[in-house]
Amino acid sequence: MPxxxxxxxxxKLSHLDRVLWPQTGTTxxxxxxxxxxxxxxxxxxxxGRLASFVRTPDGxxxxxxxxxxxxxxxxxxxxxxxxxxxxxxxxxxVEVNDxxxxxWAGNLSCVEIHTPQWCAADPDTADRLxxxxxxxxxxxxxxxxxxxxxxxxxxxxxxxACWAKTSGSKGLHLLAALRGATPxxxxxxxxxxxxxxxxxxxxxxxxxxxKADRTGRVFIDWSQxxxxxxxxxxxxxxxxxxxxxxxxxxxxxxxxVDAPEQLGFAIGDMPARLAGTGDVLxxxxxxxxxxxxxx
Length: 295
Known about the structure:
The chain is α+β, with helices and mostly antiparallel strands. It has six helices and 16 strands. It folds into two domains: 3-116 and 233-240, Alpha-Beta Complex (DNA primase, PRIM domain), CATH 3.90.920; 122-229 and 247-285, Alpha-Beta Plaits. 26% of the residues lie in helices and 25% in strands. The chain is globular.
């Protein structure tokens, strides 16, 4: 079993040749290489937040499960924080605060990383707003991009700047930095915005949860702002048929998309993309970009 040192932490790496994505032949070693390559832009979005993982120990075609609690054998140098769940139960979760933790998680085939819209140190404050755009039957990511442009304009009217990224699956995520908000307040605001757009674009947009209402429309999932919900972090890999990535987009790219394939970024695409665009979401991390919710 290979042993490597990452930032002074000794890690035992296992089954590096295991194929996690049979369709493309992508191995665990390639997953770890990807996460090591993008750590500089990924970690600022996970640091200080409780992480939930989608694990695929036998590959994406095998068993998968959502891991919230630290797994057995978690090293004592991995940061964990207790949170109070509904009902008063305490539960520990990992924080992916450094490269060593990121590699450790990847070695456990923690393919996807999800976090809530609040930091572990202040769970009563929402510092992120997320609008999750999911295309219903008959719609694609192209339609999500058109809706994203409408939402960008609507948020700007309230003084809120937002940024876009692919979900890594079929849809799009819009992210904004908030100041002085609560999870309930962010959720209520997102719901209001979604319902407003549905009222003006009923043929293109739906804000209701019922799947039966989504045919031919883009569903704006405002519930992702609830304190109990998590969203795939920027640059995470997704446990799909191909090792696609939740990739940040420029607004010029969003406006220019005319085929869903243009948004299917995979781990092999990201080094060159980052070299060309840098971290498109860097401004999201600037405290000066945070906005207060109206009212």
